Amino acid sequence: MSKQEIKARIDELRKLIEKANRDYYDLAQPTVGDRDYDLWEQELLRLEDENPEFKDEASPVRKVAGGVTEGFAKVTHNPPMQSLDKTHAKGELADFDAFIRKTISGFTYVVEPKVDGISLSLRYENGRLVQAATRGNGVIGDDITANAATIASIPKTLPADAPQSLEVRGEAYMTREGFVELNARQAAAGLEEFANPRNACAGSLKQLDSRVTASRPLDVVIYNAGGTGCDVFASHSEMIAAFRQWGFPVAPWSKYVKTLEEMSAAIDELQELRHTFSFEIDGAVIKIDERRFYDVLGATAHGPRWARAYKYAPERAETIVEAITVQVGRTGILTPVAELRPTDLAGSTISRATLHNADQIVRQDIRIGDHVWLVKAGDVIPAIDSVITEKRTGAEKVFEMPTVCPVCGGAVERLEGEVATRCVNPACPAQLQRRLEHFCSRNALDVKALGGRIADVLVEKGIVKDPLDLFSLDYEGLRRLDVGEEGQVRRFGKNADNMRVAVEAARKMPLDRWLFAVGIPNVGVTVAKDIAAEHAKFSELPNSPVLKGVIENDALKGKERKILKIKVEAAKAVLAFFESPYGTQFLARMQELGLDPSSAPKEAVRTEGPLVGAGCVLTGSLSRPRGEYAKLIELAGGIVQSAVTSKTKYLIAGANVGATKTEKARALGTEVIDEARLLELLGGGAARPETATGPAPAASAPAVPVQAELF
Ligand code: AMP
Ligand code: ZN
Description:
Elements: H1 3-26, H2 34-50, E1 74-76, E2 86-87, H3 90-103, E3 109-115, E4 118-125, E5 128-134, E6 140-142, H4 145-148, E7 165-174, H5 176-188, H6 197-205, H7 210-214, E8 218-225, H8 236-245, E9 255-257, H9 260-273, E10 281-288, H10 293-297, E11 307-311, E12 317-328, E13 333-345, E14 348-354, H11 358-364, E15 367-368, E16 371-377, E17 381-387, E18 397-398, E19 412-413, E20 421-423, H12 429-439, H13 452-460, H14 475-478, H15 494-506, H16 511-518, H17 525-532, H18 545-555, H19 568-579, H20 581-592, E21 615-619, H21 626-635, E22 639-641, E23 648-653, H22 659-667, E24 671-673, H23 675-683, H24 707-710
Parallel strand pairs: 2-11, 21-22, 21-23, 23-24
Antiparallel strand pairs: 1-6, 3-9, 3-10, 4-5, 4-7, 7-8, 10-11, 12-13, 12-16, 13-14, 13-20, 15-18, 16-17, 19-20
Helix pairs in contact: 1-2, 12-13, 16-17, 18-19, 19-20
């Protein structure tokens, strides 16, 4: 390449990377696969290194990518939150190892999972979480304290032995399971689905309304020191041990190794394990354990010289989109699906992948006949990563969303603000068949005998016109029903009896199962449980003051608005269902059939007992497992906390508890008591559990009512 060509290529790569960064960080909508992105980055770094005259501080590979978002207060990171230098080949690791050995000796490497999430800084003052921030551009990030505070696993307070002032850094992520569930919810609501758990996590953290963040399944892994409080640690391993002790989630796997060979083996082992973690990983991070070498080794503009990321090649497969079909879901949503030439990917054969909606197809420019790269989003859902445009022949066809329902021929419509196209014909058989299958699915009423084929036949032959018809079927007659395929006669026979038994059992299913079974948009298993917990009977739902209250609460402004477990979308959807003609009819029919499912009995919240409302923290070694004491405290109305706060009434100190801990607790107004005193409080010394010296004295009749059931 001539100098001119090199310069042109550099410019082109910079533009490509900048655009990809914008799509990824600002729009949370990636347009290139990770592999391509990394290759561009590598090529650009190499060209810039080989042609220093074209080096530019503003080059996207010289600064940390990721912008700051409007609407958030800004936080300055000191020291900056750096990225990591990356390697994709074992040979490059040898170079890294050689460089380290040339510079220092007497060190250990630690190999950790490279968590594929969103980097985060957490700052604590006087043992309290005071600030959470994103990496942003590395120097300035977004203040997302309110949102991070909704993540259950982030400690809000630290134990007394943690530094007064502490900053830790790590990664926030969305669990794989949570991602799949969230996307199902998004799709059911006609909203855009997230491309992968990392995007879903980024989108969740950058919410201006933290109630949205609170509803998302987020978690963190902490793996780095921040600017304060971590200087005392001589090694990374000591630091991680302390983090763990202070209540921070840390990586579930790490390996300490001495040689390049061991490092390489650890990286392979981690790759084998990658699917077992609740988070996605995109590689391994190799660090030097001894922190005294960090200054010696220093850093580049991109990342520290004492650490290196090793990126795994993403698992992907090439295939061809043979057709694009359209499915009609239970709620009437039309979903385009790519019918693929079957191919193996990460352990299974894949022949279809959802394309989500018309916008997504346009955005990715997927055409019928295209060669595509297939990946698994969140490691589970097959997804088209990108089109291999070089392989286009010109014969590919652009897909168009049908203007009528492919099942019933009825009208379809696309509501404003939704990406989904829906069939609006309530009598659409696709919807009835799906509704019936859903009604009988495992998490709904669990009528196993009604598989896909049976549901088809019952709907096709007009035997079932509504799921509730199951409760008034002639099961004797159903034995003779022909359920064979392609002209072959097969009788339903004994399965009809199984079905009747299951349908009878469904009459007694609890309210949450029934509510889920109805198939209301936005009402998944969890939401149905939350709503059912607030109602005694199904028939209470249409006029529920609780659901109306949720909607009223949502109309309030600012501080007056409470964070409620039931989301406003769900409350609206349930009320709308019962107001619709179909919903009214459905409820009337249930009443005719004598069906009014009730809630499973709630676990009583204790409003009385010797410890009512008292926050209690257990510490030190106790003569009984903590879990047992925790149960006793809860039965007595107390609240078990993990760390002392100003709301803690009692610190129950077992043996070997340091004076600092107890003094700190006292300073917060907490009473420090021993085990014997706790037992007294639990019931005049009566509830003394057995100790190693023998059974408790006979006089210790259980003072806590249900204690007898516990032991
Ligand atoms: P990248 O985002 O691909 O530039 O990779 C660098 C990022 O990896 C860092 O900024 C961290 O957010 C992230 N990372 C994930 N896991 C780790 C880990 N165990 N140690 C250090 N960084 C990590
Ligand atoms: Zn239809």
